[in-house]
Amino acid sequence: xxxxxxxxxxxxxxxxxxxxxxxxxxxxxxxxxxxxxxxxxxxxxxxxxxxxxxxxxxxxxxxxxxxxxxxxxxxxxxxxxxxxxxxxxxxxxxxxxxxxxxxxxxxxxxxxxxxxxxxxxxxxxxxxxxxxxxxxxxxxxxxxxxxxxxxxxxxxxxxxxxxxxxxxxxxxxxxxxxxxxxxxxxxxxxxxxxxxxxxxxxxxxxxxxxxxxxxxxxxxxxxxxxxxxxxxxxxxxxxxxxxxxxxxxxxxxxxxxxxxxxxxxxxxxxxxxxxxxxxxxxxxxxxxxxxxxxxxxxxxxxxxxxxxxxxxxxxxxxxxxxxxxxxxxxxxxxxxxxxxxxxxxxxxxxxxxxxxxxxxxxxxxxxxxxxxxxxxxxxxxxxxxxxxxxxxxxxxxxxxxxxxxxxxxxxxxxxxxxxxxxxxxxxxxxxxxxxxxxxxxxxxxxxxxxxxxxxxxxxxxxxxxxxxxxxxxxxxxxxxxxxxxxxxxxxxxxxxxxxxxxxxxxxxxxxxxxxxxxxxxxxxxxxxxxxx
Length: 532
Ligand SMILES: [Zn+2]
Known about the structure:
Elements: E1 11-18, H1 21-25, H2 30-43, E2 48-55, H3 65-79, E3 84-88, H4 91-94, H5 98-110, E4 114-117, H6 126-159, E5 171-176, E6 179-184, H7 188-200, H8 207-215, H9 231-238, E7 246-249, E8 254-258, H10 267-278, H11 280-290, E9 302-304, E10 312-317, E11 323-328, E12 341-342, H12 343-357, H13 361-409, H14 413-458, H15 461-467, H16 470-480, E13 485-488, E14 492-493, H17 500-508, H18 522-531
Parallel strand pairs: 1-2, 1-3, 3-4, 9-13
Antiparallel strand pairs: 5-6, 7-8, 10-11, 11-12, 13-14
Helix pairs in contact: 7-8, 7-10, 12-18, 13-14, 15-16
Bound molecules: zinc ion.
Residues 304, 306-307, 309, 329, 331, 334, 336 line the site of zinc ion (ZN).
């Protein structure tokens, strides 16, 4: 074997590459490429300087991580006047793109190194250059053919309802009876479901509300990496039909069909979302002009019992010139459109609801007593812990004093160093303990304040509603209900979905079976008085 040609070089850098993660996992390729390259070096008495392994990266790309590392390495060694051979098992490991092949090769030669392949000898002769060009061209052709094969395979699967592309956020791939399915990936799937259903049923009024909700959750993609939630993400999620498990894929002319994708939302929910999005423009107008109108605090918190659209509101002038305020449904297709409900009537009925969901004083004091009891036990525990911590601080301070004394008496550098280190450590520990005590005091104080405010509100939402300004009234709505309530002009308000805190109180007092306004409620009497 002719090894004279390689005498000028100082060693070999081996570059191996496989393009799919599957090949990496199964150990295909990389090891055998490396072994062949090592044999090549041994037979020519050449040292291997370094090996670069590229895992799961296509040869059509130029910016591959290991390749970049290799170039940094080559730059380093060329500064020391070291000449290397970059060795690949086959030229298709080097590049799958003809143009890139020569660009990358040029980059190596400009650094003073050279490229070699185990399967094909590369030298400066015209014949060799011609063969190299052909090999690079074949490599590119193979890549394109592979890509086409993969696409055809994906299309064939798609026709049978198998989704081989990346699953949407909230899913993972799973093989069931030999077939690939996209199944729910919890808890992300539940968060997405809640967000989508919340938008469909007006729990979230805007896309921003959905965004705020999802932003608080940890959303994990199919690949196990956290997904960044943005408004763009929310927008795409809302129009992603894949969450229903049934859709057409126009890009490949696949008609509407059921896919092997678990349903996260129903078709009905999806349609509601699209309807909301399509009506978005008019909604924005409504928001712009009216949402902060003091006169209609229930706007968009009450919905039409026929079509489910949140009611809007306006004033109209009667023939006598008197102004009247109405809530009404603005859905063009709804039979209730244009049939206004007097503002006063809805407001009065709403007060009855607030009255009905107010926990009775007995329940409140019972829960307050329970919480107080727990608080007392906890504060007792804390007192004991605090005592221990204070004692610990005292001990550490004494220890610190002793170190100071030792430091004054001693001039041995070893001992002095030890004392100084010990003092610094003790100071950190004392600070930490003091901070723990202070933090706990502040937290307990804050919790008590928040707790008393919450109780204050829960015991009288109706009072807050009656005397509050517009912002406070919106606060009442948000704190009491988890979504808008439907309203029927005869049957009045439907069963409201209470916020979690009110649900707890109402369950506690057994009110959940009898939430409806009682005839004898105060506001009712007031209305009757007013009418008489
Ligand atoms: Zn309607």
